[in-house]
Amino acid sequence: xxxxxxxxxxxxxxxxxxxxxxxxxxxxxxxxxxxxxxxxxxxxxxxxxxxxxxxxxxxxxxxxxxxxxxxxxxxxxxxxxxxxxxxxxxxxxxxxxxxxxxxxxxxxxxxxxxxxxxxxxxxxxxxxxxxxxxxxxxxxxxxxxxxxxxxxxxxxxxxxxxxxxxxxxxxxxxxxxxxxxxxxxxxxxxxxxxxxxxxxxxxxxxxxxxxxxxxxxxxxxxxxxxxxxxxxxxxxxxxxxx
Length: 242
Prior knowledge:
This protein has helices at residues 16-36, 64-70, 157-180, 182-192, 223-226, 232-238; strands at residues 3-12, 41-48, 54-61, 75-81, 92-104, 116-121, 137-142, 147-151, 202-205, 210-213, 218-220. By secondary structure, the chain is an alpha+beta fold. The longest helix is centred in the C-terminal third of the chain and has 24 residues, at 157-180.
């Protein structure tokens, strides 16, 4: 079974606006890495704050090597830095959570029309401002599992529906794998976490220009480069033969 793409979901965790701003910065870092590798990037859904941060963003990197590089990104990412909104110069600790879903050439999980509920809604921007007055955004609820996905990236409701069903299929595929593989189930549980500061796979310490992966107990002192999309050293280390 060959993986042909990866879907990444980033959510702001603990830390309010600062967490949302770091979710934005992490997305930019991944997208710059994708651009460097010529991986097509497509945004499925995004929920912005007034300051331009992301409460949530879901996107796909459509290349078979993208999963190989980003498969270990799932989990809680902790950031320590002086927020843009901090006037006293104090370091704040915030978190975002990342989940990674592979898309394979086995094809999507069959979704019965009778098992889903599809709602149309208006695409919205930061602060609840409607960026599209027409009801082009789509929310799909998979009633047997309770999984809900939304998509509003396209001006076409049909395209948003297609993307929402692809995201739902990816989540259902992963859920099916988890039922058969206890190891995968534990990995997924570790990926999602609760977004609390204590649950972390990685720390980004900006004052020290340091990024630490706690799973392998290793640090790199090139955080500024990483945030510009220079992930090669870290990804190669995480994907090295064990």
